[in-house]
Amino acid sequence: MIESPLLQNRQGFVAGAWTSARDGKTFAVHNPATGEQIADVPAMCQEETTAAVEAADASLRHEVPVAQRRGWLEEIERLLLENKPELARVITLEQGKPLKESIVEVDYAAQFFHFFAQHLDQLQAQQLSEHPRGMNWEVHHRPAGVVALITPWNFPLAMLAKKLAPALGAGCAAVVKPAENTPLTCVALWHLLDRLGLPAGRASLVTGEPVAMGEVLCSHPAVRLISFTGSTEVGRVLIAKTAPHVKRLAMELGGNAPFIVMDDADITTAADALMANKFRCSGQTCVCANRVYVQRGIAAAFVEAMASRVSKLKVGNGMDPQTDIGPLINRDGFDKVDRHVADALKRGAKRVVGTDRARPAQEWGAFYSPTVLTGTTSDMLVSREETFGPVVAIGEYESESEAIELANGTPYGLSAYLFTRDDARARRMAAQLRFGHVGLNTATGPTPEAPFGGMKQSGFGREGGVEGLLEFCEPQTVVTP
Ligand code: ADP
């Protein structure tokens, strides 16, 4: 069992108090590297979720001034940074990623609280300069109300920070449901939030059975907005379940990012960028390159550059400072990656780095050998679906128009990356890429200052930037004679 000063209560947090499931049931959290059971947390259900929603609704009866909300965000940023090593340890123990990446995740999460604290002045009412019908027109940004924040297991702190910072900043009350694999980071965060003296119900944490809890969040009339990050599959379920209740939604769903290398690109820059982008969190991120397209003239040189880098990666327990690649979240994750690689090999791809790893006997300890495939084509699973593992799938193309066609040939549209030394070409191609985030000669991901989100089946709504704050507001027009 994990010992931590941030995990003295291993409970949810509802209506301002640490709370267990009504029937006392719990579920186990495991360390994905070792399989060790590290904690039990409450297996909450509909009743507790309803209580959290109603407490959130009640907390909104008293308006909290913007200055006080700004103070909360600044204090949360300070507490995250002050507790960085311990939070990072909790992330690695339940998620598996290398400790150095968990530290970066805590910093990144803190930056969202910093950014939104600095931009709450965007909520000020605006007086229109025009006076239609001879009247005064003002636009206010009212809080959306009770918001449900549903998060995945790959970035248990950062994916919540993107939602919680603007939600609290905008004056909403949040009910947070973390992923079953990684609830402890949230429990640790609530030990910090508990020091803030938030009004009871402003930020509740419920852990447990996703479908039952989802029923309440999708149907309770007090919930006005659901902000979700996760698979397109579950996103679709939430869209369907909320439709009869007409709720606002912000959906950050799956990606299938193309990474295009033109023959005039700097190979070292492109290969280094791909390494940093692809292998973060063992390749289990929605922004990581899933389909690498290299122009035929430099394909051999690029494959060589990738092969020499990938073969040096060290796989192991994330608590070991030498580790570059931790375990996959569980055996289901391993099976998916393995199925993709087997399918590619069967259809004619070549494996230039990587070995067959035996399927792990247990659900945990699913370490996948970092792999480079060449000769991948559009019909293969590695190209059609998000692999979510440490596999670089490289295919070749001839022309710029072919690269665009291949890149856009997916129902997804989250991120894309393009490497070329020709600036005019880069700009021209970026405009044609149907992705919400485009890196030109960089494969860096989102940042708190800029809006981030998907096109097509990667979802809608934006996180980060002023757009990410306004997502949690309802514009209201007030007109006076
Ligand atoms: P991933 O593929 O990254 O595991 P999922 O889409 O399965 O992502 O899950 C993302 C989040 O959605 C998790 O917190 C999970 O518990 C939650 N979830 C899954 N199914 C439902 C549902 N029916 N209602 C509400 N939340 C759900």
Give a description of the structure.
With 481 residues, the protein is α/β, with parallel strands linked by helices. The protein contains 15 helices and 22 strands. It has helices spanning 46-59, 66-82, 84-95, 99-118, 158-170, 184-193, 210-219, 232-242, 267-279, 299-310, 331-346, 381-384, 400-408, 423-432, 465-470; strands at 12-14, 17-19, 26-30, 37-42, 126-127, 136-143, 146-150, 173-177, 203-205, 223-229, 248-252, 257-261, 289-295, 350-353, 371-374, 391-397, 412-413, 415-419, 437-440, 455-456, 459-460, 473-480. The protein has a 7-stranded mixed β-sheet, sandwiched between helices. The chain is globular and about 65 Å long. The termini are far apart. The mean pLDDT is 98. Adenosine-5'-diphosphate binds next to helix 7 and helix 8.
Strand and helix map with partners:
Layout: E1 12-14, E2 17-19, E3 26-30, E4 37-42, H1 46-59, H2 66-82, H3 84-95, H4 99-118, E5 126-127, E6 136-143, E7 146-150, H5 158-170, E8 173-177, H6 184-193, E9 203-205, H7 210-219, E10 223-229, H8 232-242, E11 248-252, E12 257-261, H9 267-279, E13 289-295, H10 299-310, H11 331-346, E14 350-353, E15 371-374, H12 381-384, E16 391-397, H13 400-408, E17 412-413, E18 415-419, H14 423-432, E19 437-440, E20 455-456, E21 459-460, H15 465-470, E22 473-480
Parallel strand pairs: 7-8, 7-10, 8-9, 10-11, 12-13, 12-18, 13-16, 15-16, 18-19
Antiparallel strand pairs: 1-2, 3-4, 5-6, 6-22, 11-21, 14-15, 17-20
Helix pairs in contact: 1-7, 2-4, 2-5, 3-4, 3-6, 4-5, 9-10
- Count of alpha/pi helices: 15
Associated small molecules: adenosine-5'-diphosphate
- Beta-strand percentage range: 15-25%
Determine the oligomeric state from the structure: single chain
